[in-house]
Model the fold of this input.
Amino acid sequence: MTERLAVLLHREADTLSIPPAPVDRIVNNGRQRSRRRRAGQGMIGLTIVCVLGAALSPLVVGRDETPAQRQYVAASASEAYQRYGAFSTGSTVHIGNHDVTLPGKVKALYYTSLGVLVRTGASASTDSAGPSHYTLIHPDGSTKGIDLRMGDRVPGTDPSSPDVAYAEPTGDHWSLVVVSLVTGTEVARTQVDGAFTWGGWEAPPVTLYSDRMAALFDRGWVEFDWTAGTTRTIPGTAGAPLDAANGRYALHHDSGSPDWRIYGFDSTGLIRTIPVATAPPSSTLEGPFGTEYGTFSPDGRYVRLESNGAVFGPGNKVVSEPGPDRFVSVETGTSVRISGQRFYGWTPQGRTLSVDAEHDTITTCDPGTGACQSVHAHVGAGSVKLGGLSYES
Done:
């Protein structure tokens, strides 16, 4: 892990004038650097873009009656959620072809099988002081408050699961907890031991898949199967980065190579190695390091490799958007490059999601083919947060 942190710090020192967004997010300050030493690109994809527009309801704009626009307008709430996902502008959450304005500022969005779980508070920063509130927004725009008191932690959700999971300190131990978003009540809990020194959150971050969750301790991923009532440490994951989705996790950088090696929590075999472009050797740093930054899609089917980070100017204004990016299928290894520079989130079904507030446009792309569709919608005013990205700091 020390090697990977040194790599990231080295990059930052070389690019202070126009820092790539992923590295800048890691070394922005000491607390964030502590939190994100092993977070990987999945935890450093935070992008906030100031946009102009008007927050109106309903979300759909009835102009340019293209086939894609007609499909968007006519889609059922559940179909629209799966295909177009969710994003927020200011305090308004756009989910599928509906929008909902919540009290407070949006901190983060988490995909679930029931809709998007939204964390709000007095500040849009996830590590700011004060309580957070959690609201489940269903695809039809209806809402349900969820009584969660997770504090400054990284919860786990999954687009195919109706649950949310998290870890919490319990004396000298840790509790792994699962809450049903259907009932709002706790459905499983177990207690484990283990050191957690690599991050600055109140408890180890977690991932959720099927009827299992896993928390990332110093010794690696510790899995809790609440149906069987068992826990185990995943072999070979000590020092693993926080890159996991839908039952898959990645190992990279710490073996002297930036390539992504993808495994399943339910198996010991390697699923896929994804080569990552490397930079020329440095006179002050031994070993190769990647010039592409990876993130999983929420459904774990694709890895996005970002070739160029966003460039920020004075006042943290965006000078140049990131990209172009390539998307690799975990199942087949097929790599597809989507041209253009833009900020990408994800939809629950694994399509890319980008928003152009200036032109009131939502664009989704199939990362397996590169085919994209754009629709018009009232995007609204405020800072954009895209579903499928982590905004934990």
Observations:
- The CA atoms of residues 345 and 353 lie 5 Å apart.
- The radius of gyration is 20 Å.
